Amino acid sequence: MAARIRRNVWKLDRSDETLAWYGKAVAALIRRPIEDPSSWRYLAAVHGTPQGMATPASARGYWDQCQHQSWFFLPWHRGYLASFEATIAKTVKDLGGPADWALPFWDYSESLSTERNARLLPSAFVERTLGDGSPNPLWSRRARAPGGNFELDDTAVSTGALRFTNFTNSRPGVPSGFGGPETGFNPGGGDNGGIESVPHNRIHVKIGGDSGFMSDPSTAALDPIFWLHHANIDRLWEVWRNQGPQFQDPSDERWLTSVVFQMHDGDGRPITFRCADMLDTTKVLHGYTYEAVPVAQEAELESVEMAMAGGARPEFGGESEGPVVLTGPTTKADVVLVPPSGLEAATAEPRHVYLNLENITGAGIPGDYLVYIDVPDDDQPTASFIGVMTTFGLERASDKSLSHGGSGLSQVFEITELASQLKLSEANVSRLKVTFVREGVAKADADAPAELADYAAVQRKPANVTVGKISLFYD
Ligand code: C2O
Question: Atom 3 of ligand 1 has which residue's CA nearest to it?
Answer without folding.
Answer: 217
